[in-house]
Amino acid sequence: MREYLTHYWWVLAARGLMALAFATMILGWPAATVLAISVIFGLYVLSDGIVAGATAVKAPADARLALFAEALTGILFGVVSLVWPDVTLRVITILVGLWAIVTGLGEIAIAALVRRAIPGESMYVVFGAVSILYGLVVALAPVHGAFAVAWLIGIGGGVYGIVMVAAAFELKVLVTGEPPPG
């Protein structure tokens, strides 16, 4: 497991950078985002699901289920968002919330597996907990107005991306032995 995680640290960094790009688009153009939010979300979650699925294929057997669950959720929510954007706009908070909760649970499951292989699984736990809390807030809180939804999704995506990139660099340190820049 350690070899797998340290070899594929860059996949985690790529997923985090995709989340940061997603957050930048949402926060940078909120008026246009209100109209396109379900399509942007659909493309992001679909691509994240595909990358998670591709990673799951090479993952050790004990990690595959959690990664495939993340992948399936991302692909399913992405397709739904792209096929029915008008309906998705009305229920986007529920989709985003559920996706974040499932992703958070998956990352916490991965943290339990990583803990056996390497020290420093804390970023996975933090990422999972942040994702679950964000998902609960988004899914359960009655959000008034599309701009509020856009800002919540943008901020959540930014936090998600930052934590995921930090976790990737934690893994890279295990490969190189060198501290991260900064």
The total beta strand count reads 0
Please identify the structural class as seen in this structure. mainly alpha
The helix-strand sequence is HHHHHHH
Give the terminus-to-terminus CA distance.
28 Å
- Our Rg estimate from Cα atoms comes to 16 Å
Weakly predicted, low-confidence segments: none
**Average pLDDT metric:** 82
Number of helices: 7
Number of domains: 1
Regarding quaternary structure, how should these chains be classified?
single chain
Instruction: Describe the sheet with the most strands.
Output: none
Helix content: over 70%
Overall geometry comes to globular
Strand content: under 5%
Outline the fold blueprint.
Layout (H helix, E strand, L loop, with lengths): L1 H6 L1 H20 L1 H29 L2 H23 L1 H33 L4 H19 L5 H31 L6
Helix pairs in contact: 2-3, 2-7, 3-4, 3-5, 3-7, 4-5, 5-6, 6-7
